[in-house]
Design goal:
Layout lengths: L3 E7 L7 H12 L3 E7 L5 H10 L2 E6 L4 H7 L2 E2 L1 H6 L4 E5 L2 E5 L2 H12 L8 E5 L3 H12 L4 E6 L2 H10 L1 H6 L3 E6 L7 E6 L3 H4 L10 E9 L7 H9 L3 E3 L2 H16 L5 H12 L1
Parallel strand pairs: 1-2, 1-3, 4-6, 7-8, 7-10, 8-9, 10-11, 11-12
Antiparallel strand pairs: 3-5, 5-6
Length: 277
Amino acid sequence: MTIDLYCVMGNPVQHSRSPWIHSRFAELTGQCLQYGKRLVPLNGFANALHAFIDDGGKGCSVTVPFKFDAAKLATHCSERAKLAQASNTLHIKDGQIFADNTDGVGLVNDIQRNAGLALQGREVLVIGAGGAASGVLAPLLQAGPAKLTVANRTLSKAANLVARHAELALHNKSELRASDLQGLTGNFDIVINASASSVSGAGVPVAASTLKPGALAYDMMYGDAAQGFLTWAHEHGAVGRDGLGMLVEQAAQAFQIWRGVLPPAQQVLAELRALMR
């Protein structure tokens, strides 16, 4: 029997929990597949992807720094991948490469279902305007926040991202604006760190004044990388949450795209948190 091949591609990738997650999904849903890791040279994503396809690969998860490359290489893109101009999920079928982006749905599901906090009517801050922020902005807007601010070190990058989503924000009756980090004002119910600050070990890029009392401070990273941001949140009266739930939830969406069945994300998240204690 042929076993379908899947993998996660990135650089770095050795820390990835995706193989464990997808293997567990397969066990729980009775799917027969093999899911591994592929470390990709920083300038070699296209070659690595085509080599994987030549090996019989059926789909891959794409992590930093290749999400923009993945969208550009696809023969077909979902609407949310087009809007993000970035893809974290590639599905290979009949010689075609289909790109999607499940990051935003994963984030929204983790905040609303797992953390139990509705986004409707909230004031939300997204820190960063790179691939991570691009992938989550549309689903965040579709959840109906009253205001959403994208703050980035370079204002023009945040402004471009906001402009691309302006129509969607209008449709969902959300106020959407861009800011640079230095000029950022106001405080927020939910602060989401989509910047590279946690990966690089840099300090939190915004002031504690951005946090409303009891705000949710969410770092898209997980494990040791997120610890500095979570400690900062706790020290300033916020509720800290790492991105492990987002990782599992977005993986569940990718698994459904590949296999046609939605796995039990909440069960697998609970198991993974217990494993990582």
